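Bit of a strange request maybe. I'm writing a small parser for structure token strings and I need a real example to test against, not something I typed by hand. Could someone generate the tokens for this chain?
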Amino acid sequence: MSTAIRIALFAALLLALAVAGSHTGFPVLGSGNSLQATLQEGGIAGYALACAASSLLMALGAPRQMIAAIAGYALGVVPGTLFALLCSVTALSLTYGAALFLFQPTLQRRLGVRGKRLSRWLSIATFRKTLVVRLAPVGNNFLTNLLAGAMGIHYGKFLTGSLLGYLPQTVIFALVGSGIALAQWQQLVLGGLLLALASALGAYLLKTHPELPATGEATP
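Reply from user aminoacidic:
Good idea to test on real output. This should exercise your parser:
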């Protein structure tokens, strides 16, 4: 695929983000109250546009924990968790797909030996190792998705490992957001304790996998 086509497709992605933002009033992603109002007024179309805007933001590097907290604030713990998980896997697919189909040759040249090492590491037991990467409290979600797409890691195993690895922090931040909305300090304390537990689990998994590349998941 030519460079011009890649640039055009990437520009179309940015345009889609702008359109989604204009239809959702874009502050929808800035506060739980505006998201809640947009969803209530827009119905199914409002959910779809809010999910599209959130997914595109995460695909371009926005923290998924932020989206989970806002969704928890606006929708409650369970609906907020489901909404944020949907956005997270959609964002993963967008970043992975862009890296694989649009920018793979360029990214592979830039990644060089490090990228090949990561590809070899993830290509064996992809699901389990992806789960470890997502739970480990180091690295960067956007970069992990970008590297996986650029190196052609098995999409299905990478996606399912990521989905399961996303779940703990998504629930925690949705719980925190819901606690803020309801002014319930118990939920905030519980969210903090669960986050500490998840971080400890991630640190343990990282310690038991010393060969883990420094490109895993992070809590901003």
